[in-house]
Amino acid sequence: MTNFTAQALGDTANDGQDAGRSRPIGCSTEWRAGRFRWAVDAAAPVLVMGIVNVTPDSFSDGGQHNSTPSAVLHAERLLAQGAQILDIGGESTRPGAPKVAVQEELDRVLPVLAELAKRGHCVSIDTRKTEVMREAIDAGAVIVNDVTALADTGAVALCAAREVGVVLMHMQGSPGMMQAAPRYANVVREVGDFLVERALACQAAGIARDQIVLDPGFGFGKTFEHNVELTRRLSELVLLGYPVLAGWSRKRTLGTLTGRDFAAERVHASVAAALACVAQGARIVRVHDVAATVDALKVWRAFVG
Ligand code: HH2
User: Fold this and answer.
1) How many beta carbons lie within 10 A of that of residue 16, not counting itself?
2) Over the stretch 31-76, which tens digit does the pLDDT of each residue have?
3) Which residue among 55, 66, 94, 172 has the greatest number of ligand 1 atoms within 8 angstroms of its CB, and so is best to mutate?
4) Cα separation of 106 and 110, whole Å?
5) How far apart are CA 63 and CA 47, in angstroms?
6) pLDDT digits (tens, 9 = 90+) for 144-199
7) How far is residue 15's CA from residue 31's CA, in Å, rounded to a whole number?
8) Quick one: which atom of ligand 1 is closest to the CA of 250?
9) pTM of the full structure
10) With a 6 A CB cut-off, is 60 part of the ligand 1 pocket?
11) What is the DSSP string of 21-40?
């Protein structure tokens, strides 16, 4: 068991106790007094965040939904399959992915996001850029999902002022170089410490605790061994007391484990990975294959918890 920073465990309140239970605990999204919250709720099912990449080059679905009508159709399909949140992204973060200019990213995501928000869906924006966050929130996004944990100038202040939910993810390095030579003395401890520091910085800037979700960032500046270790010990991050999001969908480590070179062939592996995380208390899973994941979670819930 890793000992995270003293601050981390000092204020986990009831969340920490819940998270320590042996059975998975759900989480829901809600708007209360005009504000979005992650409502941690023992009775709620695990949330499924469906991935909508409006990009030409995402590692598993690049180019499949990069026109507004096809992305909206895809999103509606994911909702029909049981997704509760739609995560809209306009810039690939795969290893070595090129940077996308702000305007280009906005042109990709805004029409899709605005249409889905107009239809009343719970929409999250997957971006690293404060400018994109701002316009996305104006267009109706209620969650900011950032693989850099709101590192961009003004991002924390913006999310605090606009009272959106945030997903703070850990990444070592940046997508261009992150897989070059990731190194950790103790990967679980370092990821946990980073996430708690970011969560506390967000809280100090005015983001409410119940708007914060943590994510270890599988595949982001981590070797195969780091990813396996983090997954096997995810319950230690759950004990930090914030809802944890697991984003294993179709990633390369799953290909290594199964011998599947093509990302689209990693559906079964992704479902198994999602369940391994849920078994340890993850409350949100970010997935491409919503139907398969939802079926698995229904069976899991009936048989396990
Ligand atoms: N993974 C990806 C992108 N965004 N966000 C969070 N919170 N957690 C993740 O694990 C995560 C993420 C990479 O997956 P994908 O969006 O399918 O690929 P790409 O970045 O190539 O578009």
Assistant:
1) 17
2) 655 566 676 666 677 999 999 999 988 877 778 887 899 999 999 9
3) 94
4) 5
5) 26
6) 999 999 999 999 999 999 999 999 999 998 777 777 788 899 999 999 999 999 99
7) 19
8) 17
9) 0.90
10) yes
11) SSS---EEEEEETTEEEEEE
